[in-house]
Design goal:
- The protein is α/β, with parallel strands linked by helices.
- It has helices at about 20-25, 45-50, 105-115, 130-135, 140-145, 160-165, 190-195, 205-220, 250-270, 280-295, 305-330, 330-335, 340-365, 370-405, 410-415, 425-440, 450-470, 475-555, 560-610, and strands at about 5-10, 15, 30-40, 70-80, 85-90, 120-125, 170-175, 180-185, 185, 225-230.
- The protein has an eight-stranded mixed β-sheet, with helices on both faces. A two-stranded antiparallel ribbon has the order 8-9.
- Strand 8 and strand 9 form a beta hairpin.
- The longest helix is centred in the C-terminal third of the chain and has 79 residues, at about 475-555.
- The protein is elongated and about 130 Å long.
- About 30% of the residues are buried.
- The model is unreliable at about 60-70, about 155-160 and about 605-610 (pLDDT under 50).
- It comes from Oncorhynchus mykiss.
- This is GB1/RHD3-type G domain-containing protein.
- Keywords: Coiled coil, GTP-binding, Hydrolase, Immunity, Innate immunity, Nucleotide-binding.
- Belongs to the TRAFAC class dynamin-like GTPase superfamily. GB1/RHD3 GTPase family.
- One of its GO terms (molecular function) is GTP binding.
Length: about 600
């Protein structure tokens, strides 16, 4: 993408997606790292994003008091350090812009930035004092503007913990910072400066509760916090041409902090994930943006669980289509060779099916009841049935054409009465046996070779009997012997055709058995992979919560630390319940698949016996 484009338009107080930007995301198949910047208007957010894009210009910079960015703008660039990843930069409309008049969408834009990001950069100017913290008022409303789960049971309980599990990393950038980084004469880091600003006060008065409330929200929702303090990049007189200034003209200390900030974002910002730990591609991000914005436009509250389920349905259907396309492409080469024997076709089928399943598994997620994997299996079965039929038809066509060509001279002899003479039956048998011998010697006849030959012999039976009976050179006894010999040959050919059909059926039954075992194995591995992702997600949340409790104890907030300890125990219990329920669901699904497999095997055995 050469330059930023508007992703979410804020027009007349209404939010809507820009189709062109969504189309771009839909074509982006790489995993994405999403970095959003939010903050008050005219605080230099766009400059930071241009710096992350490693461009001197791109996002609009303004030199006046007017806000330049409206809605949410997007710039997709190759990730500087992660191969085959895209860095998606989201520059948001400045919060608190007096020219908007109606600021009702500020909270929604802030919420969208959180929902879409891997890392959220909050940009402010001056210092992190009480006034700066208070300007992050939108954090207060997050529980009213974002829902993690669709269920309303115990909705309020543990919301902070739920949010921290899915919220982005939080980076506070302070621009034009002029103070000394020290407390009580002791030098501190920017991170310590931020944590000191978010410290809670002891006490229970309304004033103290009000002071602590927003800080608790920030600490609960964003357990992973980082701070950068930027000195002024240049003199006030030069600020209007900041985007056109050479790097060398900027303050050395500003350049140093800028480079450190960019390096941190590039190295520490993780891939965008959703509930379950599934990483997103640009296409999936496009679905999320559309779902969230449309939900807000309807006056509803975005729900992470619902959005992910809707996206999973779309992605899983796309995974089915992709898997089937992989299978079809894999079968093109063998299809060009039709007719082929059943083993060659089966080997190609199983190999292509394996590749198709891998493609499906790579893209699918949250296919909890195996609905879409079953859909892929059924689609492959239908397509393979058609291919096996095409191969049969090709074999039949080739074999019939071959016999027609080989028997042309004998058919001409019949018309000319060549065999209607004494000894004609012997001549007819010689020609007939030569046809069969040449037919058998012809390679690559396919799966209906014996069946077509059987039909050919049956078609010639009446003709052969007529010549036999008319041959005056043979005695009645000899005619009887020849008739028995012909009947025996026809029965042997009938058995050969039956063996051919049975061999094909057995091989296809074996294919089904291998396929079923493969699907079960893939399903188990996918379930285990998603279970591990969920547990890793939970472990990160738990570690952060326990660290927060430790910090509270160290700062003397024993009562709050005890409450958090109880919350941690509740988190552990709920996680165990969810794991047990998930294990039961997985077991039920695998048992169902095993039952279907056994039932199918019995049906196949019955068909073989028949």
């Amino acid at each position: 993408m050469d330059s930023p484009m508007c992703l979410v338009k804020n027009a007349d107080g209404e939010l809507c997606v820009e189709p062109e930007a969504i189309d771009y995301l839909m074509g982006l198949k790489q995993n994405v790292v999403v970095v959003s910047v939010v903050g008050l208007y005219r605080t230099g957010k766009s400059y930071l994003m241009n710096k992350l894009a490693q461009k001197r210009s791109g996002f609009a910079l303004g030199a006046t008091i007017q806000s330049k960015t409206k809605g949410i703008w997007m710039w997709c660039v190759p990730h500087p350090e992660k191969t085959d990843h895209t860095l998606v930069l989201l520059d948001t409309e400045g919060l608190g812009d007096v020219e908007k008049g109606d600021s009702k969408n500020d909270a929604w834009i802030f919420s969208l930035a959180i929902l879409l990001s891997s890392t959220l950069v909050y940009n402010s100017r001056g210092t992190i004092d009480n006034d700066a913290v208070e300007k992050l008022q939108y954090v207060n409303d997050l529980t009213e503007r974002i829902k993690v789960k669709s269920s309303t049971v115990d909705e309020e309980e543990g919301e902070g913990t739920q949010f921290m599990q899915f919220f982005p990393n939080f980076v506070w950038t302070v621009r034009d910072f002029t103070l000394q980084l020290e407390i009580d004469g002791r030098e501190i880091t920017p991170d310590q400066y931020l944590e000191n600003s978010l410290q809670l006060k002891k006490g229970t008065s309304k004033k103290i509760n009000d002071y602590n409330f927003l800080r608790e929200c920030i600490r609960n929702f964003f357990p992973s916090r980082k701070c950068f303090v930027f000195p002024s990049p240049t003199t006030p007189d030069n600020m209007h041409r900041l985007d056109s200034m050479d790097e060398a003209e900027l303050s050395g200390s500003f350049r140093e902090v800028s480079d450190t900030f960019c390096r941190f974002i590039f190295q520490e910002s993780r891939m965008k994930t959703v509930i379950g730990g599934h990483t997103l591609t640009g296409e999936m991000l496009g679905h999320l943006v559309t779902t969230y914005v449309e939900t807000i436009a309807k006056g509803n509250v975005p729900c992470l669980e619902n959005a992910v389920l809707a996206m999973a349905k779309i992605e899983n259907q796309a995974a089915v289509n992709e898997g089937l396309a992989v299978y079809q492409k894999g079968m093109e080469d063998v299809k060009a060779l039709f007719p082929v024997d059943v083993n060659q076709l089966s080997e190609n089928h199983l190999q292509s099916e394996t590749q198709a399943t891998k493609a499906f598994m790579k893209r699918s997620f949250k296919d909890d009841n195996g609905e879409f994997l079953k859909a892929l299996a059924e689609a492959i079965v239908n397509h393979s049935d058609d291919l096996f039929k095409q191969n049969k038809d090709a074999s039949e066509k080739k074999c019939k054409a071959l016999l027609e060509n080989l028997s042309a001279l004998m058919d001409q002899g019949m018309k000319e009465g060549t065999y209607a003479t004494p000894g004609g039956y012997g001549l007819y048998c010689n020609h007939h046996d030569n046809i069969v011998a040449q037919y058998r010697a012809e390679p690559n006849k396919g799966v209906r070779a014996e069946e077509v030959l059987e039909q050919f012999l049956k078609d010639k039976s009446a003709e052969s009997s007529s010549i036999l009976q008319a041959d005056k050179k043979l005695t009645e006894k000899e005619k009887q012997i020849q008739a028995e010999k012909k009947k025996t040959a026809e029965l042997e050919q009938e058995k050969a055709a039956f063996r051919e059909q049975q061999a094909e059926m057995k091989r296809r039954i074996e294919n089904n058995r291998i396929s079923q075992e493969k699907y079960l194995k893939e399903m188990k591995e996918k379930m285990e992979e998603e279970r591990k992702q969920q547990q890793q997600e939970f472990n990160r949340t738990l570690e952060r919560r326990m660290q927060e409790q430790k910090d509270l104890l160290e700062k003397g907030h024993k009562e709050k630390a005890d409450l958090m300890r109880q919350e941690i125990e509740e988190i552990k219990r709920n996680n165990q319940l969810e794991r047990d329920a998930s294990t039961q669901n997985q077991k039920a699904l695998l048992d169902e698949c095993n039952t279907l497999k056994c039932s199918k095997a019995k049906q196949d055995d019955s068909c073989t016996l028949l």
